[in-house]
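pinging the channel bc i need a second pair of eyes. not urgent but kinda urgent?? the chain im working w is below, pasted from the shared doc
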Amino acid sequence: MASTFRSLDTQAPFSWKDAITGLVLAAGTSVVATVIAFLIVDAAGMIPDSVTIEQMNGDRSPIGLGAVIGATVTSWIVASIVFLLLRRFTSQPLKWFAIVAAVVCIVSFAEPPALIDDVPAKMVVGLNILHVVAAISGVGALVAYLRSRS
């Protein structure tokens, strides 16, 4: 893993426009990949309809595509702010973003059991698969796009 991060040891030759375009591409890639992963995980029976989450209006419902898309987009809005701050204040924003993204992804594994009452283990695994897919697809798309621009 150290060699992976070392390969991102480059200055930030990309423009702000390229950074923002890359983030939009990363978010879109992440949403598409996560939706596909959700459909597979759901079809495998890892996201039971009997387990519900509280919606913003107070109602409870099973986790569906809307929640997956909403969570992925929200995560990428926050990730974009972090990346743009790293772009502004560090000389190696891709390296630091990849490190932050890896740490956040690992920490996010605690989220399903902490936020969902009586969550089955298979659902925890399924949701954590979605976290990994969202992180890898999005960060990978961002890095690939920005490297192609430099």
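so The mean pLDDT is 90. and Strands lie at 52-54, 60-62. — does that match what u expected or am i reading it wrong
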